[in-house]
Amino acid sequence: MKPTKLLIASSVLALAAGAVAAEDMTIVSWGGAYSKSQQKAYHEPYTAKTGINIINDDSSNEAVAKLRAMNEAGNVTWDVVDVVAADAMRLCDEGLAMEIDPDTQLAPAPDGTPASEDFGDLLVSDCFIPQIVYSTTFGYRTDLVGDTPPDDICDVFDLEAYPGKRALEKRPINNMEWALLCDGVAKADVYDVLETPEGQDQALAKLDTIKDSVVWWSAGADTPQLLADGEVVMGSTYNGRLFSLIVEQKQPVAMLWDAQVFDLDGWIIPAGLSEERKKRALDYIYFATDTQRLADQAQYISYGPARHSSAPLVGKHAELGIDMAPHMPTDPANATNTFLYNYEFWADYRDDIDAKFQAWLAQ
What we know:
Order of helices and strands: HEHEHEHHHEEHHHEHEHEHHEEH
Structural class: alpha/beta
Distance between the termini: 68 Å
Radius of gyration: 22 Å
Mean pLDDT: 91
Number of strands: 10
Number of helices: 14
Helix content: 40-55%
């Protein structure tokens, strides 16, 4: 082959490779059973519809820090990111996430109800597209708690009645609230107390009483594995992770629903994408957050869909054939004593309390 023809052939191959690369989209989530539910309900149908290849990245736990770094470097490599509501608010406030107009950029309900009404109060940020209502709660080993299983959140702090290791997330959120509740602070006063240095010290002092018995986790899959291995007697994680452990894997684990912390999880689109990538990300979001798609996710994991119109469509588990409604955190039998996460508080105080919490951990 002559050099000129070789050069032309190389150029054609390079263009073809670029075209293939352009059809890749990186979606960031949490991994484990949750990402599997998204893969089944959203990614696979979207790829079948569009031919776009979705690359999964399980870095949502570090989304804020990584998006800050990407923005600083001027190289945003993520297309759609799954984050909790408080992180979405921070990213929006910092200009690191796109603002979304729900009534022009999200699908209406099947009866024509605009998305803004269908999602309602769950649209807590201009940049946030809600996906699921979930809770952070505790699982415990049924074979390690004796004849009286824990039924109160404060049993987590009772080392005498329930000796053994506990698993807690390596961040202040939820841990600080539970600590204050179990140190006598009324539920309605928790955030008023927690915004003061004295209240933060009070929460850390309560956590000090079990600190030596805590295994700290960072990834959502950690606590289920620790429970499965019998390395902890109880541990906090997301209710969908525990559903997978208990119902699908049939481990000797049960749920402690008391003071479960309700939260929202959903999508943001990073700021700084090219017009082509932005258009593709918006197309994916429109598809993945419609009424049917959100209901479909509940076939694989016990998180409640964020749209009002999706709730009546929640049916049975896709593989096990069991009714999923009783496994939702919002089921009345599970929601007798819930704690409502304060998004605005953590959006305002997260960085400062994080620093204080990490310093306490290092002591």
